[in-house]
Amino acid sequence: MDLENKVAVVTGGASGIGFALGSRFVRRGAKVVLADIEQRALAEAAERLSESGAEVLAVPTDVSDKHQVEALAATTINRFGAVHYVCNNAGVGSRGLPVSDLPVEDYEWIMGVNLFGVIHGIHAFLPHLRAQDEGHIVNTGSIASVVCMTEMAPYNAAKAAVLSLSETLYHELKAEGSAVEVSVLCPGWVRTALGTSDRNRPEALAVSFTSDQATRVQQRREKIADLFANDSISAGEAADLVMDAIDNRRFHVFTHPSMTDEVAARFERIVAGDNPVVPAI
Question: Is there a contact between 121 and 69 (Cβ–Cβ < 8 Å)?
């Protein structure tokens, strides 16, 4: 697909999958708008991408705030006159505690970024895509969108909702005959800074750990780190899969074939009426 002079917006664009997506759009000739809550990292990311001569605009944005996302859309249109690709990618990770120990603030923060960040992106940008009858929305879900892992309730719930929202939007656009496409990225283990998301947690939603909880969280992180070492991919590899999905107008984007086996097994149990199987993590 020819992306020359097209306009791509990527939230969570300062690092990880977001930055990798921005670099792929730049390589293919697109003008890129990077949005992120980390202003210094965002400025550095935009500078790196613009070294090739590409037009890159950095817009500090908290995607949990609908007004900031609306401002992101307005800034994009004012600067470039159009938008064609919208990657609602910004996300934060779960701290790793059971439902019984999770404060409401964890749900408010994680759902605010991971789910409402996508909702705000759709509401702000979809009218422009529909009006020109051209474009592609990519929403970042997770393998957790379809396979529930323990001690990640807010993250699981948010990512499952992202998948449902994306599929609903896909159906509605197809039903109205729109040429606007939708994809949902469901990555497995990807080497990003998601595990240190608390660095961006707003003070109003800060909650202290007990010593027991801190120990439990650390043990879980070590267990996940072991899994990462054996079955992780780079952010660039995930971004390449997204670009391939855009080129081929494919809705589902899974990064780990081995994990899709777990997805199939889960839905077989659902159809059979069997109880869930407790996951290894």
Answer: yes
Q: Kindly state the helix (H) or strand (E) to which residue 205 belongs, with its residue range.
A: none
Q: Has 155 been annotated as catalytic?
A: yes
CATH number for 69: 3.40.50.720
Buried b (16+ CB within 10 A) or exposed e, 21-55: bbbbbbebebbbbbbbbbeebbeebbeebeeeebe
pLDDT at 210: 84
Q: Which ranges of the chain does DSSP label H, i.e. alpha helix?
A: 16-27, 39-50, 66-80, 104-114, 116-132, 153-175, 211-231, 235-248, 257-272
Which CA distances in Å does 21 have to 49, 231, 240? 11, 21, 8
Q: Does 21 have pLDDT greater than 70?
A: yes
Residue 238 lies in domain: 7-272
- DSSP assignment of 56-110, as one string? EEEEE--TTSHHHHHHHHHHHHHHHS---EEEE----------GGG--HHHHHHH
Structural domain includes residue 279: no
**What is d(CA 265, CA 272) in angstroms, rounded to the nearest whole number?**
11
Residue 216 domain flag = yes
Residue of 85, 107, 155, 170 with catalytic role: 155
- Cross-strand partners of 234: 191
Cα angle: 47, vertex 52, 55; to 5 degrees: 65
| pLDDT tens column, 48-63 | 999 999 999 999 999 9
Asked if residue 178 belongs to a domain, the reply is yes
Residue 280 lies in a domain: no
Question: What is the total count of domains within the chain?
Answer: 1
